[in-house]
Amino acid sequence: MQLLFPGREEDFREVARLLVDAPSVAVVTHIKPDADAVGSACALTAGLRQLGISATAYIGQDFPHPENLDTVPFVDEIVYTHNAPEGALVVTVDCASADRTGAFRPVVESDRGRVVVIDHHASNPLFGGTNLVVGSESTTVIVRELFTYLGVELDADLAYCLYAGLVTDTGSFRWGSPRMHALAAELMGYGLDTRQIAMDLMDAMTPSDLREAGSVLAELELFEAGGLTVAVFTVDAARMAAMSQRAVEYIIDYSRSVQGADIGMVLKQYGRAYWNVSLRSSTVDVSRIATRLGGGGHIPAAGYSASGSRDDVVADVLRALR
């Protein structure tokens, strides 16, 4: 397969050299992981092991991944811990900022020299000693390119991991460049059941999920600010406890589809006054809004965390737009 990122050859070679020379590698992906996080971490860890490199995937939290990610190969080998490994080269994947590494943040921030950042978020502040931050559809696309420089041979399991990140982060190929289709074609050549993968990762929901998601959608509110219309959906703490991650992601994806709205905003309550906010748009650079409010992301998809009442969080976004 031809290079996915021509012009970045030396950047990929540098990271490949660091990985091959490392005594061991700790692959760290972000807390509250999605398919791109898990797919890139599992693929890179398995690819390095194929080369005889000691590698382990970590997430800096106590609780495991959402159940919709259970079918991603090697996901059960991820270590959930607050204890960073001693002496390993730390490679973060799909972490837009140091805080997204959770319990690993102190190590990442205090010893940047042993940190390699592999990521596709435009807002990434380059928090590693070495940074492979490339504008891309998903972090798994970058990992696939890195495999070319490492000499890792693809198989069905690696292809599944890479495809998981690609299909979810592109909204089932609704946005991205021709590169995503070229890579999807390559990965499908390893016998992937793409229909079942989509069902497992994104589509299948229980009757309870559908009822809860329906109640959230029914409470849609529209706000005007800065000449833009914002569609706001609120998933309070009780609903967060009742809904699967798959159902929450469904609402987030749906938020960009409201006719007449320029921005979709989904508030997810994780504490009495603590929220994770997801922003989506097909026309507005929401990464600029998220960055202003302490987060980051991509032009069409971004997010951040906020404290305060629900109305306060909405007001902050409207104020940023004005």
UniProtKB/TrEMBL annotation:
Residues 25-165 form the DDH domain. One of its GO terms (molecular function) is nucleic acid binding. It comes from Corynebacterium mycetoides. Pfam families: DHH (PF01368), DHHA1 (PF02272). The lineage of its organism: Bacteria, Bacillati, Actinomycetota, Actinomycetes, Mycobacteriales. Transmembrane segments: none annotated. Residues 241-318 form the DHHA1 domain. This is Phosphoesterase RecJ domain-containing protein.
